[in-house]
UniProtKB/TrEMBL annotation:
InterPro entries: CAT-like_dom_sf (IPR023213), Plant_acyltransferase (IPR050898). This is Benzyl alcohol O-benzoyltransferase. Belongs to the plant acyltransferase family. The lineage of its organism: Eukaryota, Viridiplantae, Streptophyta, Embryophyta, Tracheophyta. Residues 1-23 form the signal peptide. GO terms for molecular function: acyltransferase activity, transferring groups other than amino-acyl groups. It comes from Eleusine coracana subsp. coracana. Keywords: Signal, Transferase.
Length: 288
């Protein structure tokens, strides 16, 4: 019925009404027709996120799951500047905070896992489609999905690379792949996804041994909703990683204030112990 941003909008509206407002600041929008499949479905993107991969559910076969470790890593201003400084000058200007952090984590995680160089590594992440109404040659719908839309309005683009290239090429390679996949999301992309759902019977996203999922919830601010008795002590994911049954698959970007009072991004990550040791070393090298 709703995605995380739709839920956030609902909670904000309820909190505003609870504090005495006569109407929510952002009026809710129904308009479910915006994401309906066309009469003649015609997907026009590759949609690698829904690839049909043989043996896609053999996730546990590639990792020693008997000794998994979960750690959280903090990225403040200095860490993010250090990551950005490793990019080409042009990409330093074009890449967003999400682009650089996602590319850095994806590359470091791959190096830490040390897969075969020909293994396919995938980074899948959530992109909010609201407001993404870039004009295209095949889609005249310039309205896009309005901010008040509270249904499911997200895409799951995926960046794909051979492990060898991801590990050996500069960080800019990984960040560029992330940025390209993210920037592909538009109204036309969403329409293409709706068409694909009809043609293939609502397929689940691809889950292969080389996949890593990221979800940025730093702007959701579930910890800021005031229903009249003050702000909550905590608001956010109930688990440190995306899927408690398969924690090595996913991480969240969480808003966090460290012991020094610095605001930044906390990223919980789960890996086999040897891989976690290598991953932590790479994180420690950031400010060296």
């Amino acid at each position: 019925m709703a995605d995380a941003l739709g839920l956030m909008q609902f909670l904000v509206a309820v909190a505003e009404l609870a504090r005495g407002a006569t109407a929510p600041t952002v009026p809710p929008v129904w308009e479910r027709h915006l994401l309906q499949a066309r009469d003649v479905p015609r997907p026009c993107f590759a949609h690698r996120e829904y690839d049909e991969v043989p043996g896609a559910m053999s996730l546990g076969l590639s990792m020693p799951l008997d000794d998994m470790v979960t750690r959280s890593f903090f990225f403040g201003r200095e860490e993010l500047i250090a990551i950005r400084s490793r990019l080409t000058p042009d990409l330093q200007k074009r890449a967003t905070k999400f682009d650089i952090l996602a590319g850095w984590l994806w590359r470091c995680r791959t190096v830490a896992l040390a897969p075969d160089s020909d293994d396919e590594m995938r980074l899948i992440f959530i992109v909010n489609a609201r407001g993404r109404n870039k004009p295209t040659t095949n889609n005249n719908n310039s309205k896009g999905i309005p901010d008040g839309y509270y249904g499911n309005a997200f895409a799951l683009p995926v960046a794909v690379s051979k492990a060898g290239e991801l590990c050996e090429k500069p960080l800019s390679y990984a960040v560029e792949l992330v940025k390209k996949a993210k920037d592909e999301v538009s109204m036309e992309y969403m329409q293409s996804t709706a068409d694909l759902m009809v043609l293939r019977g609502r397929p689940l996203p691809c889950t292969t041994a080389g996949i890593y999922s990221l979800s940025d919830v730093t702007k959701a601010r579930f910890d800021s909703h005031d229903f009249g008795w003050g702000k909550p002590v905590y608001g956010g994911p109930a688990h440190a990683v995306g899927n408690p049954a398969m924690p090595w698959l996913a991480s969240f970007f969480l808003p966090f204030k460290n012991a020094d009072g610095e605001d930044g991004i906390l990223v919980p990550t789960s890996l086999p112990r040897p891989a976690m040791d290598r991953f932590a070393e790479l994180m420690a090298q950031l400010l060296v």
